[in-house]
Amino acid sequence: MRKAMKGNVSLIAGSIMVSITFALLILSFIWTPYDPLAVNPEDSFAGVSMRHILGADKIGRDILSQIIVGSRVTLFVAALAVTIAMTLGVSAGILIAVASRRYQSPMIYAVNIALAFPAALLAIILAAVYGASTITAVTAIGLATAAAVAQVTRRTAHGILASDYVLAAHASGASTWRIIRKHVMPNLRASLLIQASAAVSVSVLAESSLSYLGLGTPPPAPSWGRMLAGSQQYLFVNPLLAIWPGIAIVIVVLGFNLVGDGVREVFDPTLRRSDS
Amino acid sequence: MSLLEVRDLTISFGSKKVVDCITFTLEKGARIGLIGESGSGKSMTSLAIMGLLPDTATISGSITFEGQELIGLSDREHSRLRGNRIGMVFQEPLTALNPLMRIGKQIAGPLMIHKGSSLKEGLKKALELCTKVGLPDPDRILRAYPHQLSGGQRQRIGLAIALACEPALLIADEPTTALDVTVQREVLNLINALVDKEGSSLIFVTHDLPVVSAMTENVAVMQLGKIVENASVASLFHEPAHEYSRRLISAARLAEDSFSGKGGQL
């Protein structure tokens, strides 16, 4: 692993950012400076100080504590939404790619329709039916991302299936299932990693926007998106309130993107220096 | 009974016939060269025998192999023959190998599919096969990825994969076209030696007359999907019956003459 990290700037920088996020997650279960929900009117809009390291919001809740606990929602949403998106998207994409021509185009149309359906609208519908919660947000984000993953997976898998080495594998008597396992999946891996890391970023951003719109995690549980929404009214009084959750979101999104980029390099033997 | 009998084979895409009613037979241990320019249908013929035509192709006629009719065979039944009774070597040794799989596993593939070998047994056999196709340091080669090998080495791997299950028929589709001229000769000699040793039959597809004359005793000349001439190499050279055969020969002579200085400037 150390060898893989060497000189791989995006992997190093990304790993640090992702580690910070996970450190916050672990910290949230052990210790926070204050109870993130504790209301403390005399600290209303307290600035950066020893008492409140990142300040406090209108009703005096400690920002640092909220950021630490907010990492739970963010990472939970990211993990679950990405799992849904990747599982559904990759299986659908491969299935469409290997399907016979006759079934291919209706399935491609179905994916395109799903792709055109806005995630926010899906979230609104789900929230209207089941009440806004983290789960409705996750489902909406997962399903919407799955369509994009399916689209990219289908195209990449299609290219792999048309390659000479798949023809050669057929000529060796390999079954379709064996070709999917031994040839399509390994050659998809680089593209899947990039998609997964992009999906993490997309879901973190989507969760933030849905929470901002009131379609995600309901109050009072702290979420970075809702902190951002709440700080909007006081943007001119106390701009720092918007900056802290913003920075947190940027670190997660950028971190996962950089890791995805860096890991691709590690997994591609043609990009590695010779090490057989 | 012949090993392979192709009768009235016609392959078309829509209304376009790429192979038009061709017939030839191949005895056990015999060799035939399919020669023709690109688009003459020679590669499509070999893909039809393998059962690997794209699903947009329509096919009629008859191909019998070891007494079994191949046209209309389900893909599953056909795949039991592929890589097992019929081996195939491809034109591009680079793209015909999975870039992300170590060589050892790729050679062991057909053995695991057809002979029920474990990966360990497969790799052991792969080691023997590497030696058989004349690769030095087989231990290192088995652990290498395709991009770490030269074109000639990769084509030897392709040959090892095709011959892993000791097929009765080897189809070589322009196996040396993508190689350096000096390496070409080595790979051709190797195919010659191995096919002799295994007693396999050989279908050798090429557009290059001198190459085919080094490999086979009989040649079927294809043009626009038809076999226009089917003769021994010797008689084709001395009395070519078809116009296209004459052109092939004069092209080959031109190359020869320019070497011996008779062709003047080039």
Structure explained in plain terms:
The complex is a heterodimer of chains A (276) and B (266). In chain A, helix 2 packs across helix 3, helix 6 (134-161) packs antiparallel against helix 8 (176-212) and helix 8 (176-212) packs parallel to helix 9 (224-231). Chain A has helices spanning 2-5, 9-30, 63-98, 101-116, 119-130, 134-161, 164-171, 176-212, 224-231, 240-267. The radius of gyration of chain A is 22 Å and the shape is elongated. Chain A is mainly alpha-helical and 276 residues long. The model of chain A has no long low-confidence stretch (mean pLDDT 85). Chain A has a single domain, classed as MetI-like (MetI-like fold). The longest helix of chain A has 37 residues, at 176-212. By secondary structure, chain B is α/β, with parallel strands linked by helices. Chain B contains ten helices and ten strands. In chain B, a hairpin with a 2-residue loop joins strand 9 (218-223) and strand 10. A six-stranded mixed β-sheet of chain B has the order 6-7-8-3-9-10, with helices on both faces. The A-B interface holds A 100-101, 163-165, 167-175, 178, 182-183, 186-187, 189, 268-270, 274, 276 and B 50, 52, 55-56, 76, 79-84, 87-88, 90, 92, 95-101, 109-110, 113-114, 140, 143-145, 147-148, 158, 161-162.
